[in-house]
Each structure stands twice: as structure tokens, then as C-alpha cells.
Amino acid sequence: MIATLLFLAVVFSAILCLPVLVIRGRVEKISGGTGEKTGRWENFKANLRPQIKELKFSLKRLRKSPLSIAGITIITFFAIIAVLAPVLAPPADPNRPYNIPRDGFSQTPKPPNENHPFGTTEGQFDIYYGVIWGTRTAFTVGLMVVGASILVGIVLGALSGYFGGIIDEIIMRVTDVFFAVPALILAMAFVTAMGPGLDSVMKALILVWWPVYARLIRGEVLQAKQETYVEAARAMGASNFRIITRHVLPNTIFSVLVMASLDLGAVVLTAAGLSFIGLGAPLGYADWGQMISFSRNWIVGPPGQPFLYWYTVLIPGLFIFFFVLGWSLLGDAVRDILDPKLRRK
Amino acid sequence: MELRAYIVRRLLLLIPVLVGVILIIFALLQFFSPVQRAALYVRSPQQFRNLDQIIEKYHLNEPVYVQFFYWISEVLKGNLGWSKSVNMPVSDALLRFLPATLELLIFTVPLTIFIGIKLGITSAIHRDKPVDHVTRGLAIAGYSLPAFWLGLMLLMIFYGFFTGLFPPGRLGLDAEMVVSSASFQNYTYIHTIDGILNLRLDVVLDALRHLVLPVTTLTVINLAFIMRIMRSSMLETLNKDYIMMARAKGLDEKTVINKHARRNALIPAVTVSGYLVASLMAGAVLTETVFNYKGLGWWSVNAAVQLDVPAVLGFVLFIGTVIVITNLIVDLLYAKIDPRIRLG
């Protein structure tokens, strides 16, 4: 639990630090890193000006795009739910907060009432508790899978793009293989082999997701490699490692961010699909996909009351839908804004 | 590069990918004990009684590379093992469930491509206007919908509220009787086509009734994919000099868009249709499960839940092969459509 939160904190702060890194990388490449001491601050400011201008321009476009505002609002809302989960739905057993409390074992779902604001599913799992803590599960799965995939992708993509030749050929042929089978289907096979469970789902998703980032970063590195500043760095005797980490990678960060924001939704969607099938979280674990699978037998009510059990389907579904929608809206808007081909037309 | 050389190179590139898929599947097998793996070679229920003999015969207790050799020779002979969830060999099950999935895709693919292209162009022409925001918003919303949830909601409305209007499953009881009767010739096992060939309109209508909801679900979810590519490709084309030229010489906007811009903007949409097939297959897994539509996806999910490993692995191998070949065909078509590609 603590490890998870720590990881989330690291990922969040890393995302926040990225723009700074980008600017630093660019400043260094312009001022050459080891220039004279005098006038360095002036140099820094002068060099920074175009970057700030671009950033301001991007933010302005972002503010003007209603879709991205909607996306950011939705994500913020879910982040607040995830952070405040222990307040919104206090767990009965603080050591196992992800276990949804049960109110009996009756099969028939019960409609919303005082004790259960959103009603209960079949087996009497509290829907309100499940969706609130399910938000945390969704953030955990999304950030873990995307974060780990980015790490693997950066290492392999950078190696592949920078060194080229046989290394590139091998890594790219491996990614080809992963692209040949849809993520959901391959992940399903991995989970079947590793045994069902949320851990298996995350491992399987990381295994199938990293090639996306390896490809993306390779492409960016190939492009950056041709720039004059990399040539300059090499002429000054910088090591391969320094060139990659200081000059090449910081310039690939923006496209990785766009990809990551689009992927977070997709990862959560795929994980929910696996849980829905019955390969994900164990019974009673707060997980949106599982909650929808509970509703499968209750979509049609008794004659005359077709929507009697609406809450079992609608509520967990809306949570997944809006979570994914938020990330998709943001990613789509950011991609449009950062696309150099369309930027100022 | 000549077209023929290009084809040869693409065919050669196919080999490592297929070998890779096979290696992944073999690696997954190593998670299991020899007894579980022996199930892969079983051809009939009777053989389950002497699993030790099978372990001996296929050298399942020996080093990995020896096992691989024996395993791959069986796979190449078409023996993918026994699917316990449906009680038949995996290769038979693949053939049996394929027509249902094909039937689903026959309706979904053209619908998705057609609507996606239409929406993409509309959105691009009205960039940053309300029309653009609404179309894009709707497409993104469709992409963000969980396939299984959309399916359940549709069933709730069109099966629950409008009682039995569009039922789940593949055929109703009456039509099922007709199809399995001796007088009905099953040419393809795709019910809509067979129904037309047998001149049984009732079967066709019943099959269509069962197809409406799954096809809607799959289309809605995959629409955004084509639309997004069409929109950005159209935007890029509209920025080109020859469009400015066309406008400058006084052509009306309709001609500019239909005659000059659209054709060139279509090319990227063609290239991604290979990925569309992949994305549809993944969607079909969930959609078929929700609608109890007995195709490949339904079978594989059923198998995965019952830990019927040979079935899941056989399915992955099959899907991988299909997608690799689709991509090959798309690439070749692309080279044919766009002469610039051949040189690249």
C-alpha cells in the first residue's frame, strides 16, 4: 500500500518536473553546458525566452479548447475522489481497505437506501464503497502500467534509436511481434498463464504495453540524433550516455506525455475488460470491471419493470466511462496543440 | 524499389514476426507443469487417461529446446491440442467459431470505415467550430466507452425495455431449427449469407436482428480511431499549396474538398485499416462475451476463465497470423494506390 502511494507520488512529481527538464536540456544544449561564467544568467534568460513563449502559447491553446478543459476537470475530480477515499468511504478494516463490505449474501441486488447510497450488487457488495475505492485501483493500475512501460520503453527505445544497426533491428522485430496481437488478447493469454489476479493483470499489461513507448522514443531519438546540437555535443567529446540522457531524451518528453495521457485511459479500459471477463481482481475487491460483471445477470428486470436493477449496471459503468473519457479528452487536445504540422495554421 | 522486390521484402519480414508469436506462446507454456502441458497434445477425451505416456512421447520432462522442437513440429502439423471447454480439438474449434466472428466483422468494418471517414472530413472542414467540437467529443466518448458496458446498456434498453426487440445470442430458436435441419445447406456457416443462398428470408432477418446490437457496439467503439486519422490527414491536406491553388482559381469549396482534398486525405485512412482489424478483434472478444454471441471471442474468453490453456494459446496464434497477413495485404494495396511508396 505504502509502496504504491510512494510510486504514485514519484510518477506525479516526475510528470510535473518534466517541462523543467525539457527547458534545462535545451538551455544546456544552447549554452553548451561549460561556457564562461560571466553573463550566464543573462544567457539563460535570453535562451529561455522562446521556450516560455511556446509554453505560454500552448497553455493559451489549451485554455481555449473546451475539450481539454473538460478533460482536466474530470481527471481532477477523480484524483480528489482517490485521495479522499478513506474520508468518503471509511473502511471497516483499515488494513484491507480494498475489500468491499458485504451486507448479507442475498443474490438479489438492493436499490439505493440510507445505508447504501448507490444500492448493492448481487451478493450484497456496497456499490458506493466499491466505486470510491475502485477509483484508487484505477489510478494505481493506470499509473503503474504506463509508468513501467515508459521506463522500459525509454531504455529500449533510446538504445534502438541511438545505436541503430543490429540492436535496432532486434528490438524493433520484437516490438513487431507484440503489435501483431491486440493488447487485450495477448494480456488475456498472459493472465491465463500467470493465474488470475490484479497483479497478473498489471504484469501482463506492462508486458504488452512497453513496445508502444519503445517505438515512439526510438522515432524521436532518430530525429533528434540528426540535429546539429547532438553533433556539437559529440564534437565536444560528450559520452554516448551523456548525449542520450542530456541532449536527446529531454527533447522526446512531450510526445511521451501525450501518448501517456491517451494510454492511461486505454490501460484502465483494458484492465476493466479483463476484470469483467473474470481474470482480474479477486471476488469483492474494489474494482470497476468486476462490479459490472456482477450486474450481468440483472440487466433485465421482472416483467413490467425492465429497469428495476438499473443502478448495478449504470453506476460503475459511468465511473469507468468518465475516467477514460477524461484522459482521452486531455490527450486528444494536447496532441492537437503540440502537433507541429498543425500548430500555427 | 520495384513493386516485386517490395513484396518479397515484406514477405520476408513476416517470418520473424510469426516466429516471435510462436516463441511467446511457447514461453507462456513454460508457466505450466508437464502434466498440464500434456493436454496440448491430447486429441480425444480417451487420451486423458494416459497422460504419462504423452509426457514421455513428447519429451515434456526434457530440456526446453528439445521440447520446443517437438512442440513446433506438432503445431506445424496443425495439432494445437484439445480445448476442454468445448470438448473438441483447438483447430476444429477455430474453424467452428470463425464464421460467427466473420459475420460480425462483415457488417462492422464497412460501417466503421464509412461513418468514420464521413465524420472525420466534417470535423476537419469545420475545425474549431462547434460542429468540430461536437463530432470530436462524440467520437472520443465512443472510444472511451467500455465495450462490455455499452453492450449491457443496449441490452437493457433494446432487450429489456422493448421486450425482446434485439435479443442476445446468434439465432432464435426457430431459426436455429431451420439452420440445423437437413434441408438447409450451410455453405459458409455465415447465417445471413447462407439464408440468402437458401432463399430463407426468415433466417436472414433473425440473424440480422441478433446482429444489430453487437455491430452497433463495435462500430461506436472503433469509430473514433478512423475519424481521428481522417480528421488530421484532412487538416494536413487542406493546408497544402495545391488546395490554396484550387481555391485561388475560383473553384467552389465543395469541389475543392471532394475532388482535390479528400482523395489525398484518404491514403492514411487506408493504411490504418490493418490496425482497425486488430482493434475490432479485441473489441469482438468483449462484445461477443456480453451478447453471448458464439464466435471466436466468446470461445476464447470462456476458455480463459476455465483455464483451458491450449484454446487461449491457439486463439492468440490464430489472431496473430490473421493480423500479420492483413497488414501485409494493406501494405501491398497501399503501395499500389500511392506510387510514392514504392520508391521509399
Order of helices and strands of chain B: HHHHEEHHHHHHHHHHHH
One letter per element, helices H and strands E, the order of chain A comes to HHHHHHHHHHHHH
What value does the average pLDDT of chain B take? 85
Number of strands of chain A: 0
Q: State the share of residues found in helices of chain A, binned by percent.
A: over 70%
State the major sheet of chain A: none
Q: Would you spell out the secondary-structure blueprint of this structure?
A:
The complex is a heterodimer of chains A (345) and B (344).
Chain A (H helix, E strand, L loop, with lengths): L1 H30 L8 H25 L1 H18 L1 H4 L38 H37 L1 H15 L3 H12 L3 H28 L2 H8 L4 H9 L4 H25 L10 H7 L15 H29 L7
Helix pairs in contact in A: 1-2, 1-5, 3-5, 3-13, 5-6, 5-8, 5-11, 5-13, 6-8, 7-8, 7-11, 8-11, 9-10, 11-12, 11-13, 12-13
Chain B lengths: L2 H27 L4 H5 L12 H7 L6 H13 L5 E2 L4 E2 H36 L4 H15 L2 H15 L11 H8 L10 H7 L3 H38 L2 H8 L4 H19 L1 H18 L5 H10 L3 H29 L1 H5 L1
Antiparallel strand pairs in B: 1-2
Helix pairs in contact in B: 1-15, 5-6, 5-10, 5-13, 5-15, 6-10, 7-10, 7-13, 8-10, 9-10, 10-12, 10-13, 11-12, 13-14, 13-15, 14-15
